[in-house]
């Protein structure tokens, strides 16, 4: 009689042992057989299957359940899908997994559906509540951070100011982070501590906004903001950053990701990821891309196609411009109707110059290193296209698979240029939901808004692409990505660019096999095929069999890495709270991370 064992899943995903013993030899006996629901392989030569057998973390066989009987043994367990759908684990085309910890532990300033902030008053209330709930920490370290406000979703249609934050506290330094991550606001105390006053010049690649009387109004753009926030975060210390890394990886796993990206790392962050991995606390693989302007020697010494304890350096990150919804992305024409004090010909700006772009791209090509480049506006893409073209003329094509990150505003001729240069586009169609109405009304206007994140243009040319969440800009919500890519519904219900919509299977490939190619991992990940790593996600329903308008409502029921369950969905109420504040369900981790975060940021 076979031994009775069970996978660590709740009753909704109960596992039991197959009681049929086959005649297979020991090396052919599966550890686990998955069946009982639709299995979408994302493999065009075998699009679906009844069952999948796994041994030693690899896929042993894919096919009909009857044909897999020979792989059963006394110790073989079965994962009963109970009508749910299994796909390959999602692969993060672009995100910032370590900074997911900041999103989790700061005051939640997100607008619906991920938060409750809809105007300046509710933002102030959210900060006050957080300060009350965390009074002991605030008293000890004298600092408050809020994350995720979006002026496009506030009733006032403006950024909060120094005075708005002063109304919360004039004594405690407060810094709030815009949802784009590219700008933020500081109260008077935080500005004072940062040494910013009316005489402070704009840093290169950044803007300090001012009141009519010339005093800083608290709103800081790009490098002006980073010069305030980054040093504070840099004081987290090793344990604080390690806690961030662990927490972010857990959050990614809860959305079905088995491979995460840290898309603008530092050497310190990568070393923290390695420390978490060495402790066995990284549930997912993480590919890191340190900043090419800061860490070239570290990148060259650590780049690898192989993981060590679930971590590797995959290449480098280059950032050319800023946020389209924040009007800091570099366009090739003026913004349509920007909200704020902008000149009529305002086009945004680059955060680095063309010489820096060319030098960075040349270094990557000379050293055969992959470069992923943040370029949101058409002007930024013009710079990137020019730099890659010049590098290829000088060095040829070393096969380093350069990546365009975001590409929110593109001309169709630029899509042709990216195709010619062999650039892989990692696109951001979630913008059609979160900021589609804002783009239509304010950034690019109703005509050009139809073509933001132009997945249709790339598919018209037969190009593959990835889709991403850019968390912590938004939660790493895989089903929101899927929904936005297929439907392009805005918050108001408008369809933004019906021509740019793609079918569900194309959208799923952009979350699995195509970003696997982006990361040079297509031989191991991205589809359910014999020999590949057993990375899976289990969804509540088959996304190819439901009304596309319901895609955002699908739930990730389980995430499986190397054949082991790393995430098991709680009930719906717990899940909602977990994803708004991922440490609510784990006070011990939350307390430890809060302590580590704020202990490092204590202000004398």
Broad structural category: alpha/beta
Query: Proportion of β residues?
Result: 15-25%
Number of DSSP helical runs = 21
Task: Please state the average pLDDT score.
Answer: 87
Shape: globular
Largest sheet: 6 strands, mixed
Low-confidence stretches: 1-25, 572-604
Q: State the total count of DSSP E strands.
A: 24
Helix fraction? 25-40%
What would you report as the Rg, rounded to the nearest angstrom? 24 Å
Lateral strand order in the biggest sheet: 8-9-10-11-13-12
End-to-end separation = 67 Å
GO molecular function, one term: hydrolase activity, acting on carbon-nitrogen (but not peptide) bonds
InterPro entries: Amidohydro_3 (IPR013108), Metal-dep_hydrolase_composite (IPR011059), Metal_Hydrolase (IPR032466), YtcJ-like (IPR033932)
Protein name: Amidohydrolase
Domain Amidohydrolase: 77-567
Describe the protein's architecture and organization.
The protein is α/β, with parallel strands linked by helices and 604 residues long. The chain is 33% helix and 19% strand. The protein is built from 21 helices and 24 strands. It has a six-stranded mixed sheet with strand order 8-9-10-11-13-12. A five-stranded mixed sheet has the order 1-5-2-3-4, with no helix packed on it. Helix 7 (237-254) packs across helix 21 (587-600). It starts with 14 loop residues before the first strand and ends with a helix.
How would you summarize this macromolecular structure in one to three sentences?
The chain has 21 helices and 24 strands. A six-stranded mixed sheet has the order 8-9-10-11-13-12. It comes from Pontibaca salina.
